[in-house]
Specification:
The protein has 273 residues and is of the alpha/beta class. 45% of the residues lie in helices and 14% in strands. An 8-stranded parallel sheet has the order 7-6-5-4-3-2-1-8. The longest helix has 25 residues.
Length: 273
């Protein structure tokens, strides 16, 4: 059974090699690459080549990669040189994803401002960056997935953005924890399930973003499984977990439970297809 888990379940900095080895030993087949997801770090060719060697050594495949919206290189910035540097940062992740055999880069965007002038500035920057990245993404065979945030306002921003670009370029990454925080995430997912190309699966109590193991809090997993079963998503169950709030201190036990949870949800989805 194909199953995926995030590389940064313990940390997203430093060498990923120990975590790749443990993930492979636990029985996972795929990775959601989440190292350096919120930094300005640019991956160089030697680093990407080494990651490719590790993936081959451990028998792992890259499912998708979490791109960085940037710290000082921000792809949605009203300051033009900052925005352009952010576009270069995203392009770096597109190139890396293609080199490692992945097909999706996941990106965050902020909620569109309510103020009309600020909203115009926001949409202009977002459109210019997406338009600039489209040729590189298409050439690499990699799509961009915009991840839902934890509020209905953010889901409304996504609802406006997705119809503006074709599905061959731009899709949706549904984050189950964020959707649970909004209270209406599954309602929006139902509307845009044909655009679903990536998933971040984890649980929380509806109060904060906890990245807990699935089936441990209040996400409606039966409903989510039903939507995924009839969606455009064809990849494996992919968990974006953190050991920090999981109740586990032993990494091997944590990963073993995550594998069982992934198998359980996979069976739930298959039962509704």
């Amino acid at each position: 059974m194909d199953l995926s888990i995030t590389t940064d379940y313990a940390t997203g900095l430093g060498s990923p090699e120990p975590y790749l080895r443990r993930i492979a030993e636990a029985g996972f087949t795929h990775l959601h690459w989440c190292h350096q997801w919120n930094t300005d770090f640019l991956y160089g060719k030697p680093e990407i080549d080494q990651i490719a060697r590790w993936l081959e050594e451990y028998g792992l495949r890259l499912l998708d990669l979490h791109g960085s919206a940037g710290v000082e290189k921000k792809w949605i910035s009203a300051t033009e040189y900052v925005r352009l540097a952010g576009v270069e940062l995203v392009a770096n992740r597109l190139e890396m994803t293609a080199r490692l055999g992945g097909r999706v880069v996941i990106m965050h965007i902020p909620t569109a401002p309510a103020d009309a002038d600020l909203a115009e500035e926001y949409w202009s920057a977002l459109h210019r960056s997406l338009d600039a990245l489209a040729p590189a993404a298409r050439a690499a065979g990699v799509r961009i997935a915009i991840e839902n945030g934890g509020t209905e306002e953010h889901l409304q921003t996504l609802s406006q953005l997705l119809p503006e670009y074709d599905a061959g370029y731009l899709g949706l990454c549904y984050d189950a924890g964020h959707g649970n925080l909004s209270g209406v995430g599954l309602d929006y997912l139902e509307r845009f399930k044909d655009r679903l190309i990536s998933v971040h699966l984890h649980d929380n109590d509806g109060q904060s973003d906890q990245h807990r193991p699935m089936f441990t809090a209040t996400v409606d997993w039966p409903r989510l499984a039903g939507i995924m079963a009839t969606s455009g998503y064809t990849g494996p169950v992919s968990q974006e977990l953190s050991i920090r709030l999981s109740g586990f201190t032993d990494e091997d036990a944590f990963l073993a439970q995550a594998l069982r949870d992934g198998e359980r949800l996979t069976e739930m989805i298959a039962a509704q297809r």
